[in-house]
Structures are given as structure tokens and as C-alpha cells.
Amino acid sequence: MAEAPKDVLVRMRDDLQRALEKAPGDRRWVMVIDLRKCVGCHACTIACVAENKLPPGVVYRPVLEQERGTYPNVSRMFVPRPCMQCDNPPCTQVCPVTATYKNAEGVVDVNYEDCIGCRACIVACPYGARTSDFGYTYLEELPVLDGAIVGRVTSEEYERSANYEYGKEYPRLNHRASPIGNARKCHFCLHRIHEGELPACTTTCIGRATLYGDANDPDSVVSEMIKLPNVIRLKEELGTEPRVYYLV
Amino acid sequence: MKKSSFPKWLDFNAMSSFERVTLLAGIVAFLLGLWGLYTRLFVGEREVGYGSYVVWGLWVTMYLFLAGIATGSYILAAFEYLFNIPLFKGVGKSALWAGLVTMPGALASIGMDLGHMERIIKVYLQPNFSSLLAQMVWGYTLFLVITVITLWMAFKQKAGTPADGAFKAVLWIGLVMSIFLSGGVGALLGVNASRPYWSIGLLSVQFPIYAFASGVSLMMIVVGWFLGFKDEKQREHLLRWLGWVAIGLSLAKIYILWAYLSQGWYSNLPGVIDPIREIMFGKYWWYFWVIQIALGTLVPLFIHMTPKLAHNNLWAGLTGLMVLTGFAVARANIVFPAMTVEALDGLPEAFFGPHLSITYYPTLLEWSVTLGVLGGVTLFFLLGARYLSIFNKPSEVK
After folding, report:
1. A60, A81, A97, A238: which to substitute to probe chain B, counting the most B Cβ within 10 Å?
2. Which residues of chain A have a CB within 8 Å of the CB of B194?
């Protein structure tokens, strides 16, 4: 009896394991987003917010909605927009202290301890992929009423406790504690990748529209996808060489 | 008459009425700024109007403006000491002192804009020189040092004698730095291919002209209101020519604006034409037409061409103030509108939260900090100039 085809998520986890056996410089992480499969549920946005404990005003992966045509010939299109992890990133060369850079795996990192918060990288990004952390928490405006509102204090503690971006702990202690005051961006969930887990947006996608893997591995799902003729990248004319591909 | 217990440079009664009014305005502005300075330093950046889409706002504009005054004033001083141009005789020390005071004001303003201003030292310890921002920080630091040395040499120089070799060498270095640094801030914006409105080549060319015009306008205020002259005719002559230079540069500004905006308009690229629409007919129309064009250029031209007003010290100073305000708004009209264009269609509507808007107006906090910085700069300038006897008539200088 023929073996049933593997679910794409299982295949991508296998791809990930193979990639992690290689030296970091030999991997080429890319993301492929199939716009024909995206239903605009925003689950990836929420998964990313939860995974990275993003505060209000900070978003790594919004889903852009576009309406096309005129009634009755109309359609809606959804475009998830993570950081493009450009191979020629405009954001890194404008940083005055090299706080943002391409790491050995080709992902654009931010060193929160070095970032001075000038936001030059936000200005330079043609995709609007970076946001500034102004130090908010989601539940800070709620009143504390013992017995009436449950969880206000606990939630505050949760929001202030550390996230694990870039494999480090960043508790939100006060307005001077990084990443508050820093520019922030999607980092392909490298902290998960290094533990053998796919990015949060990829595992959460209900339509399997987001694919992730090593483009240097000819057997990986993403390698198959980026060879297709219906692949595009955003604003290619700028020469940024994005690592996020869209299937249209 | 009871003798004042204050030293002469601090004695309110010994000041001219122009100095008193300006000093009081400086004190009021500084006091209004204390709330903003405290909030920014001890609470953080939450109350600002800029954010992740309109990334830079009033504080960056004020940085460009004050740094422009500093470099422009230096150019003016170089014209006196280096080229011995009679037209600018007598303003050298005032111009250098103005540059020395406004540059820290510019750096304070940009410092407030940093998410982690305490880490500015990292720009010196681990600079990335491919970043224009790092180049500017180093450049302005060196420029400050050069300005201090120049001012010291200007004080050492005997009145009426030409600049010696060492002084000339320092002035040349300062002059070249002034031109490159003032153009550099334009390049700081222009190198961003993500903002097509800034990527028109004319952008960085405007900045040295704006800087020189700002320096000249400030000197109109200083000459009209503060500086002492042996002969009032000398003041009148100087004001007349400074006025013509300021107006000439303002007209040059209009010519450049015409070239810049019409060229952008005809390109019809969304990233270029949308900010131009915002400036001329959108939410920033009154900045452009009322302050930049009418108040900053046409009214000063009218005043200067009206002999009765042009010969009046108060009006001459006011003319300088209006031209200066026009050039401040010119910087705002470069910074804000370019950022009100969506990086990708639908981005501002894709996720909602604080500081995720493409509409920008400075908040009370931003105005307060700006008032504090301008007030502080005014106080330092005025009191320092009195302490250093910069405003005294040549015969009074000891």
C-alpha cells in the first residue's frame, strides 16, 4: 500500500531537522506565503504577538487586506507581511552602532542592548516591517477592583515577564528596559527554530499558507515552491533581495 | 541710586529693553519646558505624537533647524574673518557664539528623540561609519570643538588685524565642515530609498542654503536687538545688507521649492506626489502657504522694501525672526509629509495600536520639550554673550 503523503507541517519539521544539522552559514532560511490559501484570519498575527509577548503598538506580522474591483466583480486579498529578512537590507547600514545586522544564518537581528532607539532603521525599511516599542501593556488601563475584575494583576505580571526573542530574556521592568525604546521586528522566530520548532506564524496558519524552511536544501518544501513561475517578492525593484516569497 | 548686587552681565536693570524682553521670553519658554523635560526623562516617550509610521517628528525637525543655525552662523563668521568681507564686519563673535549655543540645543533635541539616549556613548565606542547618522554624530562633535577653538582665537585676535595662519587654517576646516555637515543632514534623509519624496537629488543641496539663511536671519535679530555699535549708521548698513541676503536666500528657497515640488509633481509617483499634495493642499497646507511662504518670505520682503520699517531696529529683528521661523517650518515640511505615505497599501489599517498612525501633529509633550530647548538656548546665548561682552560696543570691550 502506498504511503500517505505527509502533512506539509510534518514535512517542514523534517526539513528543519536536516537544516539544523548544517553549519549556520550553509542554511538559507526563507518564508513562502501562498496568497491563494490565506483566508485573512489573522491567526499568524496573534500567534506572533503571543509568542514574542508584543505590547500594544508593536506588530511583526500584520495581515494587509486589499479589496479589488467594483461591485459586483469584487474580490479581497490578504497579504501577511513579516520582515523580509532582505539579503541587501537597507535597515542595517543606517544603524549608527551596528545594533541591527545580518546574522550568520542570514536573518536580520536586533541587539536590544546596543540599540539607541534612533529609529533610522524604521525610516529605511521600505516594507514598514519595524515598529517602535513605546512601553505599553495591554491591560494597564483597566482598573483594579478586588473581587470584581479577576486577573488584572496577574495579566500585568505576565505582560511584564520576559520574552525569549533571540534566545535571551527581556523582562519589561520600566521605560528604560529594552526592548522598550527599541525598534523591533520579526526574526523568523529563531529562538524556536534553534529548538527544532517552526515559527509561530507557520504552525498556526490554518490554511497552511505560510511555509518555512531552508532554500539551500533541494528537497525542502520551500525550495520546491520558490521555483514556481507564480512566485513574486515585494518591491523587488529596490534591490533589497527579500527572503519572503509570495505565491500568487 | 542703589547699586545692584548682581554682576553686570546678570543685572536686569543694565540690560536693554530688547534684552529684557528676550530674556523673559527665554525664562518663560524654559519653565514651560521643564514639565516636558521631566516627563521625557522620567516617564518616557509614550506621550509623543510620532510613532512607527511617522517615525520622526518635531524634535528631529528642531535638530535639523538648530544644527542649521550653528553651521550657517559659522559660515557667516568665516566670511568676516577669513574673507574679510566688509558686508559682514562686526558679527563674527556673535555668530560663533550663536553656533556654539545652538549646536548643543540641536543635540539635546535629537537626544530627546532617542529611545535610549543614555546609550549615545555607543556611537563613539562602536560606530558604524556606513551610517550617515554615525558620521553626523562624529562630525558635529568635531564641529563643536572647532567652533570653541575658533571663538577662542577670535577673542585673542586684535581688533582690525587680519587673521593669522593658524586662525585661517581653523576657519577653513570649520567652513568646509559647516558646508558638508549642513548638506549631510539632507543626505541623512535623502539616502532612504524607502522614501521617494526625499530621494530627489535636490534635497541635500537645499540644506546648506537653508543653514546659511538661518545663520543670517539670526544675525539680523542679534544686530537689530542686541549688538552694540560705535556708530548707529554701521548697524543700519549691516541690517540692510543682512536683510537683503536673508531675502535673497529666501527667494532662492522658493526657486528650489518650485524645482523640487514641480519635478516631483510631474513624476506622478505615489511616494512623491502624495507628500507634495499633503504639503500644498493637505493637512500641512497652512505650514507651507501661511508660515513658510507668506510669513517667512513675502512679509519680510515687504518690510524690507518699506524704508520706514526697514530702518527700524525692532522691525529688522522681527524680519529676521520671521525668516528664521520660515526656515524652521521648511524643515518640518521636509520631515513630516514624506512619512505620511503608507509603506504598503493597507498597512495602517492592518493592525491598530498606539503610535501606528500616518497622521502626525506634535503633542503637548513635544512642544513643551521644544520650548524648553529653545528657552535654554536663548538664555545661554543672551547671558553668555553678556558675560563674554560680545554685545558691547567696541570701545567698551576690555
Report:
1. A97
2. 90, 123-126, 238
Query: Given a cut of 50, is residue A14 above it in pLDDT?
Result: yes
Q: A116-140 b/e with 16+ CB inside 10 Å = b? A: bbbbbbbbbbbbbbbbbbbbbbebe
Please spell the DSSP secondary structure of B270-330, one letter per residue: HHHHHHHHHHHTSTTHHIIIIIIIIIIIIHHHHHHTSHHHHT-HHHHHHHHHHHHHHHHHH
Distance (Å, rounded) from C-alpha B130 to C-alpha A196? 36
Quick one: pLDDT at residue A58? 97
Contact assessment for residue B307 and residue B228, using Cβ atoms and an 8 Å cutoff: no
Helices (H), B157-231: 165-190, 202-221
Tell me how far apart the alpha carbons of residues B309 and B372 are, in angstroms, rounded to a whole number.
Answer: 32
Question: Looking at beta carbons, which residues of chain B come within 8 Å of A183?
Answer: 115
Q: Residue A155's domain spans which residues?
A: 8-247
How many domains does one find in chain B? 1
d(CA A185, CA B342): 18
Q: Containing domain of residue B152, as a range?
A: 8-393
How confident is chain B (398 residues) per 10-residue block, as mean pLDDT? 70 86 96 96 92 96 96 94 84 94 96 95 96 95 97 87 87 96 91 89 88 94 90 87 90 91 88 91 90 93 88 91 94 90 92 94 96 97 92 62
Q: Cα separation of B384 and B379, whole Å?
A: 8
User: Domain containing B201 — which CATH number?
Assistant: 1.20.1630.10
Cross-chain Cβ contact A178/B123 below 8 Å: no
Q: Is the dihedral of CA A32, A35, A39, A41 positive or negative?
A: positive
Give strand pairing partners of A247.
A34, A231
pLDDT digits (tens, 9 = 90+) for A188-202: 999 999 999 999 999
- Contact of B130 with chain A, judged by CB distance below 8 Å, is answered with yes
Distances (CA, A) of B351 to A44, A127, B317: 12, 14, 49
User: Above 50 in pLDDT, residue A101?
Assistant: yes
Predicted complex: ipTM over 0.95: no
Q: Is residue B16 part of a domain?
A: yes
Helix (H, G, I), strand (E, B) or coil at B32: helix
Q: Is residue A2, in this structure, part of any structural domain at all?
A: no
Question: Which grid coordinates belong to A80?
Answer: 501577511
Query: Which CATH number do you get for residue A118?
Result: 3.30.70.20
Please tell me the least confidently modeled range out of A207-211, A238-242, B50-54, B201-205.
B201-205
Residue B195 lies in a domain: yes
Would you say residue B398 lies in a domain?
no
